[in-house]
Amino acid sequence: MAMVSLTGVAHAQDQANDNSGAGANDQEIIVTGVFSATSIERAPISITAVTEDVLQRQAPISSADALKSVPGVFVNSSLGEIRNIVFSRGVSARSLEAAGGYFYVSLQEDGLPVEPVTATNFGPDYFSRLDIMNNRIEALRGGTAVVTGANAPGGIFNYISKTGKSAPGTQFQFKLGLEGDGKSPLYRFDAYTGGQISDSDVYYAIGGFYRVSDGARYPGYKLNKGGQIRGNLLWDYGGGSLTIRAKYLNDHNGWFETLPARDFKDPKILAPYTNLSSVLPPASPHSYVDFGTGEIRDWDGSNLVNSKAVSFDVNWRHDLTDNIQISNSFRFSRNKAHWNTVAVNFATPLTDADGGIRTIQSTNGIDGTYTYRLPDGSIAAVVSQVGATRTLVVNNLPSQNVLAGGIMAGLAYQPDFRSETFQDQLTLSGTFGRHRLSIGAYFDQSTFHQRFSGAGGGVMTLEPRPVLLSTTLTRPDGSVYLVTDSSGWAGIGQGLAIRESGTKMTDISIYGGDTWEATDKLTIDIGGRYESLTYDNFTYLPAAFTGNKLTTGGRDGNPLTLYDNATTARGARLPFKRKYDYFAFSGSAAYQFSDAFQAYVRYTSGKKAPDFGILSGITTPAAIATIFPSAEKIQQIEMGLKYRDNGMFIQAFPFWSKNSNIADNQTFTYKAGTPNAGTNYSPPPVFGQVETYGVEISGDFDISSQFNLHADLTLQNPKAKGFSTYTQGPIGDGSDDVVSTVPPGTADNNPKVIARTTATYRPVEALSLFATYSYLGKRAANRRNAWYLPGFSTVDIGFAWDVNSNFSVQGNVTNLFNTVGIMGWAKGGSLLTALDRQTLTPAQVSADPNQLFSVLPNQPRAFYLTASLKL
Length: 871
Prior knowledge:
By secondary structure, the protein is mainly β. It has nine helices and 52 strands. The longest helix has 9 residues, at 10-18.
């Protein structure tokens, strides 16, 4: 059966592990695209196997980063180990923002999703880490993912772990890194052991890692610290197998913010910033009030994003007869993420044209003289505020070449996420004559909760590793208020993003398929899936403070400490439901012209239901009554050509992809004077589509016994049309927002060219030298094609030396020439203004080509040395 299985089959997974060493001349076995293990050549799907050797040679910084060697897949890992973006074949809406980087795809471990729920700033890569226990990755792009992938039409990326049967032995690995162009240390230790328990049919495996690093852009504290441990027991009882797996992860990770830049044609990071600069705030620990419980909690930037994951799996496979098999895969997981980091951290003038500073410091409508001081007590700036007008009176701020009167403004971001998930998939497969039939059912029930409490807003210096500016307010009557607490944060418990919501998501699916060997050469398969997805949601209305901030004593009883004088309270609980039912199908015809050459053609039609990130934008009774986000439609046609002979393996996949009914949400803040002032809302979406023609080409060539060349190339032409954007009206309550049509053009953030080539030279059996050239083509910065992120190339080099049969050493230099490539961007301004990228027009760029904006560069040069000991 050639239909893609969400979970795979236990014995197929074992077979894949047993064949993990297949080389270019061998039949490479895959399981993610089949109900029973089959060779990659015979599977009528576009799938790539990233082997353990390739993973080690690549030195990826994250789970997503390892997918760069897969043709047709776009990966943005520039933020670090978390908040990565992954999409394939032009199915890329919303990919400008890392808050939803896995919207269309499923990241899996051993055949089941790591985290079925996706929401804004919550998804699977917070809870997935590569380690020495990874055996391989199988990457499916589009196609049959709509049939047996749970609400993941863009692709399935299955990270398969070792077992004691497939990888007996013990291994230790120590990795020393110098990231940030050799300036920031990384220390990492991995361990693995596995094998047979005595003379029984039971095999064990256990492994994991611990790592500490300063990060590629050192913020003054460790940017990554933590690790995971996991293991499995496999009982192979002859007529089947039972595998039990468990994992515990506890990791702290930061992520990088954008840097100030100018020149849309050739973006340049502005001095004193470089591609090594961090704009994260100092640790600045302080207390805040939990929005849900009212408890006093602590925020500390050096705690970063703390992700914790516990999972328990049971996989069972049994041969009912010689030609009928049954398998069942179950997973329980509990994932949590507690954030202590900064968000919407952008350069903006203290004169505050867009109101961002007044919002984060909670000083709207409070006139007087604001004095901003450096940590040593010296005056950095003085501003006179009268109504909405702020005048800079004294300016001793640094980096005025970047922006006159400029500072860095951001939020002490403090969301709490937690989910609990039960997944189960049952598959029954059988061979009857020339037919291979499979039927199955998938069940997932996930409970998800998110809370944003508001730990304050900060004004910082416009320089690398900024410091917080303490702020005082002198009123016209001479009274003096502390706008910030002792750590430099203001508006604690107020301002943007304070909310609480959650859902119970239930996904019930049935699927089936038939692969018919019509002749010895011709194979036809077809499969379908019915999916019923229900969200039982709730949201709490935030109750904005309505008193007088200047006279209320707040949490500490002192009216002169303005920073805690007003707290947004939790209001009424609003329940609501949304349900999605749809049918997906995929079919192909494959023909084996010879033992070396196979070809197929496939048509796929499916849907993508909204995730909770979209549904959580429904925050008022009016929105509950009127906004019903609909499922997107995905259609694809692809052809596959696969040729393997005499040390050469070539694959080509011409494709057409259409993603329609795309709703792109915008977020505004209710303006002062409106009933919901200070809280967020999203206007009703307008629907558009992205259509892409392209071809993915992959080739692996053994030029000689010593020299191998591997190349991947994606050429595509992504087009978008039908989209619109909103501009908030002057009233600011959503009643007078103006919608404007986006002209048809190139789809945003979608490169027309992605190329990657690796050459490996082995002068002697024990030594390998390798180099990788990568090119990412230019990308439209938004749907209006206001400007284009330039294309750029990077080079990685390395060596691997097997000192003896037990000890090996590997060295890597990534981004050898320290090339600065632009992976993301934001508009000029602060807070939501900067994030509203889709509203920037070509006319605005032409009128002010030298305006300030911000960019996110790729990872800078890094050096790694890894020593491995096998016992």
